[in-house]
Backbone:
């Protein structure tokens, strides 16, 4: 194979105007936390400190919830639906106008390749606002009953893997449906949420409709437990999702929980092999594998397994790992030291339990948090690497002989968020999709997202759906539920 070298093509940081410090965004203004506590957010690719971020505790959460309640009662619930839609359109357009700035800040704070933040995260975030802007004045005609009502004040907690996109998934439908929100971004990636607070100011959104509080799990728990919250919308680990479900169980709060996954990517013998290999790479190495719906369990029909593995290894050898700001980079930095530790720990269990590890030769930068693209073969269903979510660029490869065995193995998981099917027989794809217990199933592709398409899981992957009409129903009080 020819050795095709790329000259580096770094994106400029000049457009990112990151302040030395940020307060909390409450009632339309940036305010200092009551106790003046703060924490640092760093660039995981360089370990450089990017900014000092306000740390919200119970008192600050109380202020934010009060501000959201007052905005709900006095302003937002009285704002005509068409006007709500206009604000959402305005936000969407500002996100597009400031897309490059958002992409650069996202990549600096998260470690993901600029190509992905530029081409996926930010355009999809804007698309979510555009999509939901269109819904704002059509809720009465959407099968939610005559006069569907907002649930009120919503507490929203999001993870670090798609910071702005997860914010958009949460805030756009909530506002379209007439709710006000208090949102907490993850502690390692608060910057684009704070930039979004500026967008709310720029759009002239009434004060208190969106409040952004920064902090860690303790801050998140204070939000969950605040008595004046009507609903919690959470995306994150199954463990925290369960804790949230427990804490709200004796209250009237409703919840949407989007949790972990261990998706099967099923390759049948009649699949288009080269396309399937691209799909495997996209399924597990997109966003460093920090994806709850990642195709982290590859299930290959035995008679094509050798061919697939050979081609997969050749393809993996071409993955460019390094500076996330370089437009050629495919695999960026792991988001945090803690996450890197977790990836090492579970991967080592793969070695200890007898699976065979393989990574292409690659040089990892000396500073920052990095993990090479990795596959394990000889994996059995009982191995930890086949059962637990690794949330990193690590793929477990299993094989099957008959389609029925493939389905059985695919469904042998406590999760059920997504799955992929590769076959050139339409009837087989439909048959398999029907058997698979997963909320989202891709056929001959992987990791495709659209605001109109509901997303969510079965079993321990969560409750409820986000996106589409189904996602809106979680933000409305209605006697009529969206049909499945
Ligand atoms: P991950 O494993 O992806 O880091 P977590 O579930 O730990 O996922 O974190 C997702 C979000 O939940 C983050 O914003 C985090 O601060 C928040 N969080 C963590 N613990 C709690 C908790 N006990 N209650 C509420 N939110 C929490």
Residues:
């Amino acid at each position: 194979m020819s050795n095709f070298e790329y000259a580096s093509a770094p994106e400029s940081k000049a457009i990112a105007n990151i302040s030395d410090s940020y307060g909390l965004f409450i009632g339309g203004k940036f305010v200092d936390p009551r106790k003046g506590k703060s924490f640092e957010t760093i660039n995981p690719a360089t370990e450089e400190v990017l900014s000092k971020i306000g740390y919200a505790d119970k008192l600050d959460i109380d202020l934010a919830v009060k501000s959201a309640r007052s905005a709900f009662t006095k302003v937002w619930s009285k704002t005509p639906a068409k006007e709500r839609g206009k604000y959402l359109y305005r936000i969407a357009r500002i996100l597009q106008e400031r897309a490059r700035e958002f992409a650069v800040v996202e990549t600096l704070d998260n470690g993901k390749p600029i190509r992905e933040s530029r081409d996926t995260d930010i355009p999809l975030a804007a698309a979510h606002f555009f999509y939901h802007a269109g819904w704002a004045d059509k809720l009465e005609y959407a099968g939610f009953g005559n006069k569907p009502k907002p649930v009120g004040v919503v507490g929203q907690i999001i993870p670090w893997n798609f910071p702005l996109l997860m914010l958009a998934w949460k805030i756009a439908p909530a506002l379209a449906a007439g709710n006000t929100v208090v949102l907490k971004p993850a502690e390692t990636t608060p910057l684009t949420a704070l930039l979004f607070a500026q967008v709310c100011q720029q759009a002239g959104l009434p004060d208190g409709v969106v409040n952004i509080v920064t902090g860690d799990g303790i801050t998140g728990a204070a939000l969950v437990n605040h008595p004046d919250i009507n609903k919690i919308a959470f995306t994150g680990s199954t463990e925290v999702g369960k804790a949230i479900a427990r804490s709200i169980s004796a209250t009237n709060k409703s919840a949407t929980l989007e949790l972990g996954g261990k998706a099967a990517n099923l390759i049948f013998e009649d699949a288009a092999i080269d396309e399937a290999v691209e799909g495997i790479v996209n399924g597990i190495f997109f966003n460093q594998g920090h994806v709850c719906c990642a195709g982290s369990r590859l299930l290959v029909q035995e008679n094509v397994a050798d061919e697939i593995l050979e081609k997969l290894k050749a393809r993996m050898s071409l993955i460019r790992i390094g500076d996330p700001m370089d437009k050629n980079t495919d695999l960026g930095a792991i988001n945090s030291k803690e996450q890197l530790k977790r990836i090492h720990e579970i991967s080592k269990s793969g070695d200890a339990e007898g699976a065979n590890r393989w990574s292409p030769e690659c040089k990892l930068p000396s500073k920052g948090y990095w993990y090479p693209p990795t596959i394990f073969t000889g994996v059995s269903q009982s191995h930890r690497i086949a059962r637990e979510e690794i949330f990193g660029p690590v793929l477990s490869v299993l094989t099957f002989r008959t389609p029925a065995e493939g389905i059985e193995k695919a469904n042998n998981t406590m999760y059920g968020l997504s799955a992929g099917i590769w076959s050139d027989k339409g009837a087989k794809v439909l048959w398999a999709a029907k058997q698979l217990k997963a909320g989202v199933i891709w056929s001959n592709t992987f990791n495709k997202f659209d605001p109109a398409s509901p997303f969510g899981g079965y079993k321990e992957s969560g409750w409820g759906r986000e996106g589409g009409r189904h996602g809106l129903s979680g933000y409305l009080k209605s006697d009529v539920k969206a049909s499945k």
